[in-house]
């Protein structure tokens, strides 16, 4: 069904709207599952009742998380509201309650102990995650043009919610970043001799056909192998796959003997935010650096800090 004419039409409409490849894959996945759940009936013959039944099935039979339900509904809502032009209206569907869990964070010495077990490219990746608050995919997608040594900033392009943002860039990694950029550009020069270069988004590739030869477009963390662009089919070099740093992190955490914590790439972003608030930074500033649409999302880190946030102490401290 992945190559059915109907799903191909949906895929084309998603690309016309300029959505990311990740969103495209996610939407196609859930639309395909929705159709299969309804015994391959055409979506135009179904409506809100079938959608509610499917979401209920995900919750009761597959025990998916609330966020997964939301993603599935977003995909199906796109199918009906945007592609088929058959608005679903009010589904009167209530998501399962989502328990609030505090994010796992690392103290500065713990981050240092993990970074100590890394070197070169891997150490730089996690230094950027912790020092700039990037998500792992945002970090791996960085290009040379996104780094500004003069202003000490990193520009995150097309982040979550298709938004751009600017965040801080630590001078302590300027030298290692310059070295990694130099290595990346050398690789680009070698690729260019073979007529290939870094992958460029489809629309921009047409607008700037020689962009793959310009150092500004080279990835900081290029993949070791060439591949065909998933949309254009052009042979190119994509950025490093996120499975690579995840494996490196697992080994480093074990070597640092931090087995009492669940540490993921995203933990470094959580730790970035927590450390800024611990040091008295304004929560609105932290919100902007993280790219959160709503400050309530950022406020979760104040709960992680507890009494350390904004200088708060327990009333008991005054009488004991």
TrEMBL record:
It holds the Pfam family Phage_integrase. Residues 1-84 form the Core-binding (CB) domain. Keywords: DNA integration, DNA recombination, DNA-binding. InterPro entries: CB, DNA_brk_join_enz, Integrase-like_cat_sf, Integrase_catalytic, Integrase_integron-type, Integrase_recombinase_N, Integrase_SAM-like_N, Tyrosine_recombinase_XerCD. PROSITE patterns: CB, TYR_RECOMBINASE. Residues 101-314 form the Tyr recombinase domain. Belongs to the 'phage' integrase family. This is Integron integrase. The lineage of its organism: Bacteria, Pseudomonadati, Pseudomonadota, Gammaproteobacteria, Oceanospirillales.
């Amino acid at each position: 069904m992945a190559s059915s004419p109907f799903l191909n039409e949906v895929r084309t409409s998603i690309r016309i709207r300029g959505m990311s490849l990740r969103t495209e894959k996610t939407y196609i996945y859930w639309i395909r599952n929705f159709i299969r759940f309804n015994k391959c009936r055409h979506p135009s013959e179904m409506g809100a009742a079938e959608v509610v039944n499917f979401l209920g099935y995900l919750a009761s039979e597959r025990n998916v998380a609330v966020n997964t339900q939301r993603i599935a509904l977003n995909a199906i809502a796109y199918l009906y509201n945007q592609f088929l032009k058959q608005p679903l209206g009010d589904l009167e569907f209530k998501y399962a309650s989502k328990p609030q869990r505090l994010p796992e964070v690392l103290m500065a010495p713990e981050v240092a102990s993990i970074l100590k077990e890394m070197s070169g490219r891997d150490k730089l990746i996690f230094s950027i995650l912790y020092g700039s608050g990037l998500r792992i995919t945002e970090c791996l997608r960085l290009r040379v043009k996104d780094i500004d040594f003069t202003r000490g900033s990193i520009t995150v392009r097309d982040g979550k919610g298709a938004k751009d943002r600017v965040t801080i860039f630590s001078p302590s990694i300027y030298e290692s970043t310059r070295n990694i950029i130099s290595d990346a550009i050398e690789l680009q020069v070698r690729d260019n001799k073979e007529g290939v270069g870094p992958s460029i988004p489809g629309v921009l590739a047409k607008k700037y056909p020689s962009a793959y030869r310009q150092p500004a477009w080279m990835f900081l963390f290029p993949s070791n192998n060439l591949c065909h662009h998933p949309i254009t089919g052009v042979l190119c070099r994509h950025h490093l796959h996120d499975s690579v740093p995840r494996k490196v992190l697992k080994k480093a955490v074990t070597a640092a003997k931090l087995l009492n914590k669940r540490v993921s790439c995203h933990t470094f972003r959580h730790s970035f935010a927590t450390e800024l608030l611990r040091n008295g930074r304004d929560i609105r500033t932290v919100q902007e650096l993280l790219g959160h649409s709503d400050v309530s999302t950022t406020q979760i880190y104040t709960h992680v800090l507890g009494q350390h946030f904004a200088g708060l102490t327990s009333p008991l401290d005054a009488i004991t």
